[in-house]
């Protein structure tokens, strides 16, 4: 289709069948911009816009149906691509000024709006003009840092770890930053990760996000990127000066517990990541309501931007919480020779002497909680909210609390075995 100068601003939602090897060609009077769809095939539902500022923007959602069914979006039967915006002649920014610029400067992300993880980015090399696809992640929301390798082809995700003292890398002196970088692992191609390294074109290796040229963009690009389909290297920071965390080796099974050891249950990352996926799919509904993803309904009756974007904001918050939980390596429950501790429920470790017994309670909708009865219930110092949850979770009275390991990496059976190991008399009787 062709758009004339006098039709700007212009926007359209169209659906086209695509097959592997197909490409989208945006032709301007000066040049062609060619973007492949990668491995995607089926029906591409495009949202195409030319803004009054003479910037062309395009997104698409690929499904296996000719019309965009909201249910496809909700159930994740599809994949999204955001194409790199194209500056047309007459736009306030000259394309030359964006050569090597960061992700926000290029319009790949919008400030204040989260780019969903299921959107891949299709970008175009400034040097060889070939397209390639990137996966982005919101480093700010994940509470991580990222760096690119000297080769520009690999991405490192730095987890600040448990302790305090993790430095703000952009605030370090050059010398301190180099010392920090010297501790990092190597990329799969044996090149080093550095803060101001560029992400490079996989075809010709020209810098794409050229942070040596645009150091200010490095500080504001709170999205990291990796080549689509290439896994990032993940590294957890520890304080080089601090005392080494005593390595606590977990027994595989409580049956192998030794009395010096601590049985711990942690968040199960898989369950939380499944939750992230579910929320991300639900957030699609927000994009449909907001009209970002075109549907028959929004075409005919208009979009609901306020509702849509609110939905997206709530989804983003939920995803942040779930990601934090998935990445939280701390134990949620600990059982040892000394007693029992549950994060957020018990104020401190409860000595075995304070526990009068445990019992299993079936939940109304399946599953089970372990009810722990206390000699002196006042030690829990419950708030109205936590006692409300406690009541919901197992109909336990104010003097007891329930342990529900549903989202942990240890089963209720394992927890019961651990209690039986340390205090056989306190294990629930079947
Ligand atoms: Zn290139």
Describe the structure concisely for a colleague.
With 430 residues, the chain is of the alpha+beta class. It is built from 9 helices and 22 strands.
Structure write-up:
- With 430 residues, this protein is of the alpha+beta class.
- Strand 18 (339-342) and strand 19 form a beta hairpin.
- It contains 9 helices and 22 strands.
- The protein folds into 3 domains: 5-236, no CATH class; 266-326; 332-426, no CATH class.
- The structure holds zinc ion (ZN).
- Zinc ion is lined by residues 125, 127-128, 130, 201, 203-204, 206.
Mind sketching the topology for me?
Elements: E1 10-18, E2 23-27, E3 32-36, E4 42-50, E5 55-63, H1 70-74, E6 79-87, E7 119-124, E8 131-138, H2 139-142, E9 145-149, E10 155-159, H3 174-182, E11 193-194, E12 199-200, E13 207-209, H4 215-220, E14 223-227, E15 233-236, E16 263-266, H5 269-289, H6 296-301, H7 305-326, E17 331-335, E18 339-342, E19 350-351, E20 355-362, E21 368-374, H8 384-394, E22 400-403, H9 412-422
Helix pairs in contact: 5-7
The structure holds zinc ion.
């Amino acid at each position: 289709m062709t758009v004339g100068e006098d039709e700007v601003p212009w926007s359209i939602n169209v659906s086209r069948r695509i097959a592997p090897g197909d490409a989208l060609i945006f032709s301007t009077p000066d040049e062609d911009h060619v973007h492949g769809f990668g491995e995607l095939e089926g029906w591409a539902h495009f949202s195409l816009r030319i803004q009054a500022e003479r910037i062309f923007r395009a997104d698409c959602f690929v499904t296996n149906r000719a019309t965009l069914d909201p249910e496809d979006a909700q159930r994740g039967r599809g994949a999204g691509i955001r194409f790199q915006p194209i500056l047309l002649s007459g736009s306030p920014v000259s394309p030359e000024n964006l050569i090597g610029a960061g992700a926000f400067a290029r319009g790949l992300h919008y400030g204040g709006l989260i780019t969903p993880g299921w959107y891949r980015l299709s970008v175009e090399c400034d040097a060889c003009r070939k397209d390639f696809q990137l996966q982005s992640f919101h480093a700010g929301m994940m509470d991580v840092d990222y760096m690119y390798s000297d080769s520009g082809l690999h991405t490192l995700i730095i987890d600040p770890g448990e302790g305090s003292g993790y430095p703000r890398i952009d605030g370090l002196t050059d010398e301190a930053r180099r010392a920090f970088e010297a501790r990092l692992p190597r990329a799969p191609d044996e090149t080093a990760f550095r803060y101001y390294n560029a992400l490079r074109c996989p075809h010709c290796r020209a810098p794409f996000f050229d942070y040596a040229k645009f150091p200010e963009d490095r500080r504001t690009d709170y999205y990291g990127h990796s080549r689509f389909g290439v896994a990032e290297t993940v590294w957890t920071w520890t304080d080089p000066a601090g005392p080494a965390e005593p390595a606590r080796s977990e027994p595989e099974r409580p049956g192998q517990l030794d009395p010096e050891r601590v049985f711990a249950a942690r968040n199960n990352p898989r369950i939380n990541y499944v939750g992230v996926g579910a929320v991300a799919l639900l957030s699609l509904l927000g994009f449909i309501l907001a009209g970002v993803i075109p549907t028959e309904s929004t075409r005919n009756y208009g979009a609901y931007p306020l509702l849509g974007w609110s939905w997206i904001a709530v989804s983003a918050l939920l995803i942040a919480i779930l990601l934090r939980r998935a990445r939280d390596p701390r134990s949620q429950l600990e059982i040892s020779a000394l007693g029992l501790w549950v994060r957020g429920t018990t104020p401190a470790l409860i000595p075995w002497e304070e526990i009068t017994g445990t019992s299993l309670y079936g939940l109304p909708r399946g599953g089970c909680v372990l009810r722990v009865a206390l000699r002196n219930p006042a030690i829990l110092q419950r708030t109205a909210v936590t006692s409300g949850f406690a009541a919901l979770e197992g109909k336990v009275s104010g003097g007891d609390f329930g342990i529900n390991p549903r989202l942990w990496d240890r089963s209720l059976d394992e927890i019961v075995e651990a209690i039986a190991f340390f205090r056989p008399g306190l294990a629930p009787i079947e």
